[in-house]
Amino acid sequence: MSATTDQHPVNAPSSPPEAQRVKVRKDIAGFEAATAHYPERAREAASFVFQFMNNRCNGSPALVAAVLKKLDAAAYENKENYIYQVTTGRYFKQATGAQAINALVEIADHLRRYDITASQAGKVPFNEKLSVWKDVRDYIDRKRARDAVCKFGAIEGATGTGKTAATKHYQLLNNHLTTVRFEAPSHPSLARFMCKLGACYNIAGTQRTNERILSIEENVNDTRCIIIENVQKLYNPKNGANQAVFSYLQELQDDTGCTIIMTWTPVFRKELTTGKDAGYFAQFVSRWGGMEDVLVLDRKPAKTDLRSIAEQFEIENFDACFPILKEWGSQAGPLRILYERCQKAKLLAGGKAPTVDHLEAVSTEPISFSKDDGTEEAAA
Question: CA angle 219-222-228, nearest 5°?
């Protein structure tokens, strides 16, 4: 496909004939080096396209082009070469007009909307009106500010209070190379941990541990935010003050200035503050800004949250339903129970707006969390 002045810079070279079969295998540091000459808006848009290509399309420009064609066949016909050139630094070699940059920004916006929609397909949509989302969003934004003193952050929440869903949504909205998120490995192995962290930056899993350490350091800087879910799994009581993963995280943050957000369940607080290795963890407590600066999520949703959930499921007469919703929200795993039971009420209503009668009928049923209906994702 030839470059044209209305869509692309005139000096953009053509991609190789096999462009439809190639895969772009750069880590994030390599991508940033290749696109350092891009105008800022173009670089930000290209970074999202690059991440989408790697996370959703196995590094294939052709698959990204296929998604774009599906979204708008008339506007995005034959975009394989364009995606290849944009994600390999072959565009914007010289000054270019705003129209070419806007075209790339528009593509990134299309893919971002598609990414959000696809991630929620078959699930209850994420509710940005809930207080847990606002608390998590504001907390991470504060910790990752360039002038923040304490770049370590911690979020404590019991199962079913919404911390996992909120951090997933945060990463999804900030998926332009700066924010990564992953679940702590079930075994506190440094090699396994670094493999999962490296994968977030497109670092080859075949690298040796020492090589991966260097590659991660090349990809992490003071603009990066790393969210690690359920860090209590990284603690090995048998190792005492020799906690390899936690020590590595401290070193990584000191060396790079990145932001590291940890989440845990309430039982881990005791290990941090009064457990046998509390002396070791004191260095992290100070880096969080003290335990008082840990974001502790409410165990019970506020009335405004209950109203928002009721609106999400189109439940009629909130005032009449409030006592039932409040009771559901007072149990362990409140948001998960609320979403599970509201969805059951919605199904029981047969496509109509659920009423207090439907909620009362659901209240008599035992709670069972389905892994396939989307409530686990919506309220984790």
Answer: 70
